[in-house]
Amino acid sequence: MHRYRSHTCGALRQEDAGKEVKIAGWVHRKRDHGNLLFVDLRDQFGITQCVADISAPVFKILEAVRPESVISVLGKVVPRSAETVNDKLPTGHIELVVKEVSILSEAAVLPMQVAGEQEYSEEMRLSYRFLDLRREKMRDNMLLRSKVIASIRKRMWDAGFHEFQTPILTASSPEGARDFLVPSRIHPGKFYALPQAPQQFKQLLMTSGFDRYFQIAPCFRDEDSRADRSPGEFYQLDFEMAFATQDDVFDTIAPVLAGVFEEFGKGRRVTKTPFPRITFDDAMAKYGSDKPDLRNPLLITDVTPAFKGSGFGLFAKNIDKGGIVRAVVGPKSSDQPRSWFDKLNEWARENGAGGLGYIQFKADGPAGPIAKNLDADRVAQIKAVTGAQDGDSVFFVCDQPAVAAKFAGLVRTKICNELNLLDAEQFAFCWIVDFPMYERNADTGQIEFSHNPFSMPQGEMDALMNKDPLEIKAFQYDIVCNGIELSSGAIRNHRPDIMYKAFEIAGYTQADVESRFGGMLNAFKHGAPPHGGSAPGIDRIVMLLADEPNIREVILFPMTGRAEDLLMQAPNTVTPRQLKELHIKLDLPKEAVKADVKTDAAK
After folding, report:
1. Residues 41, 49: Cα–Cα separation, whole Å
2. Lowest CB count within 10 Å: 383, 453, 521, 545, which one?
3. What is the largest CA-CA distance in the chain?
4. Could you tell me the mean pLDDT of each successive run of 10 residues in the chain, 603 residues long?
5. CA 500: distance to chain centroid?
6. At what angle do helices 538-545 and 246-264 cross, to 10 degrees?
7. In 133-275, which residue ranges form alpha helices assigned H by DSSP?
8. Residue 75: its H or E element
9. Residue 340 DSSP symbol
């Protein structure tokens, strides 16, 4: 028999009764019933109940061992009595009568319990992540992540992609987020950068003659944390296709994503391919976001004409100054108590708006402050345009276009949540397409790239030469699921002449482009195929599948929101000798010096 185990803690069943077996794992929970001691032994695969009689030599050993100690036990599998069967466990019809026990590793007193459903602070959980990962939910999340990545890999191979690894030490990028820099010892004063994404390398692969590339790529960005973004590092399904149109990209990657969500979605509905396409302009107008959650059935409508020149002066004056009015219908909400509307009004103020105006379309006629100050024909117009029915309420947002669109999106979400309209039993995918190539900087008035500067403009050189830059759309797209952006992607600008002109419109000279992106530009000058791709985030995919609101719940060893690894104590100081080897002298802010002094004193 194996030194440690013949079976895992999740393997034994009724048909194993009578066998002598050995299992090993962590002491999950103990229950002392006087003459009998029950020990639940846990490993990655499950839990087996072990039992020892008070007369058995192993009783005192098991009685003394602490929870989370690692032990190996030898014993006989016996059926449980009918009244003690636990149908919630796969092993719940048997137990192991312990004959021998070996203590493989004694656990200290636990700072946090593994068994049970206790809640602990993020600081505690991340400081003792190795204990946190032993908990059932966290274990399941990490195993799910592993299975999802394995499934993605297989699906990409089946779609004709080959996996390649791109460099981790590379050059700093002048665009995008802040880089993580790595000083060079043998090149004093020079730095590598960790890749924010393998973007340029995968495009170089296309110019090198490879047709379909992918990798599960680590990416590094020195940016702030959010619920759906981990500070420091993340992983993405990075892929690129040669001789590809936008349709080719969509037709290739949508079945991969749909298949993964069908495989691991636990029966929740998944949008059938091809996924719906929504233009950026329509997304902002109808959903108030370029990341619309299509599980929310509410739509935003434009009711500016109904208020233009009206007696409702607050809105009418704003419209004369370039403002717009957006409306969101709250189905079957007109009979909500006044306090419900007052709370929504207060919520709007807390979110920076002046309030949240509304009309209640009651069975006996329109009601509410706006209805009282608006002509009846205009109220009827609003009802017709929005599709409101008797029993509904309509909420209004009036502001300058960009502000109104964004806040109307928040109102859409708020009303949906208040009325419990969200269909949580589905994964609702869509493509957001036709992003603007350029935008005007509100402070400087300058034309800037709106999103990815390396996207191919729709209309190519002709559009750049003859159209208003603010009207040019890019072959750029986002894949969105349940209001979460899984990735941005684009058909790339592979022609140097178009690239020079695109950057010229944004204020860059040809010399600027060559100095910043010389490597990729040089490759394009030697023959580059049309190509495009995307990079859905692995962490976000798993977060959705695990139904977790925070991305740290699906990452093995995440950092805190302040980009600190509490377990490994990173970032940390290094020795003067290491700094000297790297030709670096520190010029720390006073606050950092004081903090270091306090830390040294505490040590």
Report:
1. 6
2. 521
3. 93
4. 95 97 98 94 98 95 97 98 94 97 97 95 96 97 98 98 97 79 95 94 97 97 81 94 98 98 98 98 97 98 96 93 97 96 96 94 92 93 97 96 95 98 97 97 92 94 97 98 96 97 96 89 96 97 96 95 92 94 91 59 51
5. 34
6. 40
7. 136-158, 199-207, 246-264
8. strand 70-79
9. H
